[in-house]
Amino acid sequence: MADGDDVDVVDILGDDYAKTILVHAREEPKSVQALSDACEADPSTIYRRVERLTEADLLTDHQHLDPDGHHHKVYATQLQEVRIRLGDDGYVVEIDRSEPAADRFTRLYEGFK
């Protein structure tokens, strides 16, 4: 049987706003305002979806510094692939996520030791 986290991810992926957020944040990180525009939804709705997607490790956030010195968060998609198959005990859900840049750097650095 799929564990609770995987079932939550499948539930999240069924949401149209979540799908649009993941698609638009795939190529480059986007602000909530840009995602709100893409979804044609109120920013408060997008903040709720962004929070769920971030908690499920399907979206990651970064601080973006504007040239004028202000900063805000931008969000990037981590989800690469979801596979669902039927096993002997129920659904088996496998989720592939991209590796965060900091983790990739650490892995590469440790490989040089």
From TrEMBL:
InterPro entries listed in its UniProt record: WH-like_DNA-bd_sf, WH_DNA-bd_sf
Pfam families tied to this protein: HTH_20 (PF12840)
Domain of life of the source: Archaea
The protein's name: ArsR family transcriptional regulator
Record organism: Natrarchaeobius chitinivorans
